[in-house]
Specification:
By secondary structure, the chain is α/β, with parallel strands linked by helices. The chain folds into two domains: 103 residues, Response regulator (Rossmann fold), CATH 3.40.50.2300; 129 residues, Response regulator (Rossmann fold). It has eight helices and ten strands. Strands 2-1-3-4-5-10 form a six-stranded parallel sheet. It has a four-stranded parallel sheet with strand order 7-6-8-9, with helices on both faces. The longest helix has 19 residues. It is elongated.
Length: 292
């Protein structure tokens, strides 16, 4: 009976008229995440196969028709021609455009610049490489060839480059029409006359001429092997980051800027000759006469 009374008293104490006790809820306070820091830099649109890495520039790649809102758009001539880029410049006058690898003559715009590489210097350096190969492989004949349509200025620069290595190198001019079949036939004809290297300008003609050279296990070269358009594009972007924009003109880039050099070499060229070719490119960039 006494135990039952104790139980009743305990229950009454918990439920009686006194103020009930309560445990306050705990509130956890977490610091707000830091606000996203805006990325500082000039937004630059790049169209095509151009490697552009410049401090202060945020490079974004799209097609030309998806480039509104950029301060500068750099376009490879391998992707779009001058007329197409000029139309984009007309549609977006607030944006500056640079067409890398092609002049803009006939399509001048105040917000469009052409970025032109020195093809004569590229042809000269190609001739230097051809001369190095001829000295290594040509025996007593040492002949090299320029194949394709008559481009006497470029073929002349090629010849001067080859003879800067060895004055005895023979220069063949394998002129042809611009069709791939004719260019390949010209290349094969020059090889039949003992040429150990065939060089052509570019495009489908060069593709065919080089295919003919490779068919005979000979070295094939093209101007693009000695052009570095990404170097020129980076310079244009670098100037834009500094607040300088170009328009209504064509800007020329040569060996001294680094835009003419060894881009790639035929794998048939030996390691020793490849090293000599890169040394010759450095000589040309420094204004020195390349040597074998």
């Amino acid at each position: 009976m006494r135990a039952a009374l104790v139980v009743l008293v305990t229950i009454a104490a918990g439920c009686g008229g006194g103020r009930p006790s309560s445990t306050p809820a705990r509130t956890t306070t977490r610091p707000a995440p830091p606000a996203a820091t805006p990325v500082a830099g000039l937004r630059v649109g790049v169209v095509g196969p151009l490697d552009v890495r410049v401090p202060g520039a945020i490079v974004e790649r799209h097609s030309l028709d998806r480039m509104p809102g950029y301060r500068l758009v750099v376009v490879s001539a391998e992707v779009d021609d001058a007329a197409t880029v000029a139309a984009a410049a007309d549609a977006h006058p607030e944006t500056h455009y640079a067409l890398v690898g092609s002049p803009t003559r006939g399509e001048r715009r105040p917000n469009l610049a052409g970025v032109v590489l020195r093809e004569d210097q590229a042809a000269f350096l190609g001739g230097v490489v051809a001369g190095l190969v001829a000295v290594e492989e040509g025996g007593t004949t040492k002949r090299v060839a320029w194949a394709g349509p008559q481009e006497r200025a470029l073929a002349g620069a090629f010849g001067r480059g080859a003879r800067s290595i060895d004055a005895g190198v023979g220069i063949l001019h394998a002129w042809s029409s611009d069709s791939p079949a004719a260019c390949k036939e010209a290349a094969l004809g020059s090889i039949a006359r003992a040429a150990v290297v065939v060089m052509a300008h570019g495009g489908r003609c060069a593709d065919a001429a080089i295919a003919g050279a490779h068919q005979q296990n000979r070295v094939g070269l093209r101007l693009a092997d000695f052009e570095l358009p990404g170097v020129a594009a980076a310079q244009i972007v670098r100037e834009a980051v500094a607040g300088v924009y170009h328009g209504g003109e064509d800007i020329l880039f040569g060996a001294a800027s680094g835009a003419i050099g060894v881009n790639r070499l035929d794998h048939r060229i030996s390691g020793a000759t490849a090293i000599a070719a890169r040394t010759a490119a450095q000589d040309l960039a420094s204004g020195r006469r390349p040597s074998g």
